[in-house]
Amino acid sequence: MPAQSMEELVALCKRRGFIFQASEIYGGLQGIYDYGPLGVELKNNLKNAWWRAMVYERDDVEGLDSAILTNQKVLLYSGHEATFSDPLVDCRDCKSRWRADHLESDQCPKCGSSNLTEPRPFNLMFKTAIGPVDDGSSFAYLRPETAQSIFTNFKNVLDSTSRKLPFGIAQIGKSFRNEITPRNFIFRVREFEQMELEFFVEPGEDEDWHDRWIQERMSWWSEQGVNENNIELLHVEGDELAHYSKATVDLMYRFPHGLEELEGIANRTDFDLGSHTKNQADLSISADVEENRDSNTRLAYHDQQANTWTVPYVIEPSAGVDRGVLAVLNEAYTIERLENGSERTVLKLKPHLAPIKVAVLPLKRNHDEIVETSRRIKQDLQRLGLGRILFENTGNIGKGYRRHDEIGTPLAVTVDFETLEDQTVTVRDRDTMAQERVHLEELSAFVTERVR
Fold first, then answer.
1. In what side-by-side order are the strands of the sheet with 97-99?
2. Which of 120, 123, 52, 28 is nearest to 81 (CA)?
3. What number of other Cβ atoms are within 10 A of residue 430's Cβ?
4. Do 330 and 389 touch, CB atoms closer than 8 A?
């Protein structure tokens, strides 16, 4: 059963080293978080699972890792400079600031005053100076999304890989948005990571591909342990659509704070490639974009046999890594009442996402032979390439089991005196708490089957 409140997840993340407030010793930074020893493993495992599904397991997708600093003209022609803003209101009494579209009434949520300013647009992009002199004439943006660098690299990827339509370009990376009111832990923050795919298709085939990618993404989240019953499809309509979108379907997940977007799958048509292309009229670009007088590149697909140029339509599945981590933690968080009346907290993470795959626990911390055997087992299991294997020499097996239940470790291997006699160890399953003896010669295969 998912967590009942955000407070439960926040407490677990702090206590067990998943997520910390950034710059906490100086009072922190609102909307900025650091990932601790376990959090960085969980986050990397989720990203690796996405990369495997998008790039390794498909034959029609290439990868990209582009720069964070972005030329101002990229975001001018993409429409971000003109449209990437939220409505901002100020409370004249307590001086707090709020997003107008998040206010439930005409009163300030902090002090209750109705003395609010009229809403005005607030640009969400971070600027930074380029070069040694900050005179305002030379600047760049921290990218507000990873998508635009995929579009500006379209020709580079196409020329270097000789891809044919349909094909995609995938990227995982940091993005930055100067949110007015960051909120709900890591759900809405100012610095975050995205997992984005831009999938280029023939015009006319875009609606079919849009439907296919919605189903693909639903299935993938299910494989990560997210219950499909906790996801609703929201078909974004009318004025709610982004300026580039023909159609968008959001996967809305039941977070502890309510139903909100986990991932969006958008049909961006030819807006983006058209926006960054020179000689737009020659290519019959359908999007209503500003004529680009600065680009020196034709971002289009050339069919050499037919000698025709096509500006592909784009289907974009875009997911937030941080929101994904929050959803996975929420689904895995479980409190069980045991037969003896006590409770245990367990993170029932999918094994491929678990920060630690196996804990190796010596029964006696000061017994040289048991400790040395435990270290050797740890090293042997680590070589399997399954992920992090932890040797933990505390000597308290009961507390070790409980701790690893709470951080989601699928298996715990205990080395005891019987191990020295017959070369067997006790392997305990996180979910069932069942224990069985396994011979050391069979341990690698046993662990691999259950973790991979």
1. 97-99, 85-90, 120-123
2. 123
3. 23
4. no
Residue closest to 50 by CA, chosen among 245, 323, 256? 323
Tokens of 452: 């991979």
CB-based burial label for 417 (10 Å; 0-12, 13-18, 19+): exposed
Which pTM does this prediction carry? Answer: 0.91
Cβ atoms of 32 and 190 within 8 Å: the answer is yes
Do 195 and 50 touch, CB atoms closer than 8 A?
yes
In order of start, what are the domains of the chain with their CATH numbers?
A: 6-82+144-329 (3.30.930.10), 356-451 (3.40.50.800)
302-332 confidence digits (pLDDT tens): 888 888 888 999 999 999 999 999 999 999 9
Q: How far lies 274's CA from each of 132, 260, 292, 301, in Å?
A: 34, 31, 9, 12
234-248 confidence digits (pLDDT tens): 999 988 888 788 899
Pairwise CA distance, residues 221 & 367, whole Å: 45
Q: For residues 408 and 411, what is the distance between their CA atoms, to the nearest angstrom?
A: 9
Tokens of 374: 């435990």
The answer to whether residues 328 and 353 touch, using CB atoms and an 8 Å cutoff, is yes
Measure the CA angle with vertex 333, ends 7 and 9; round to 5°: 20
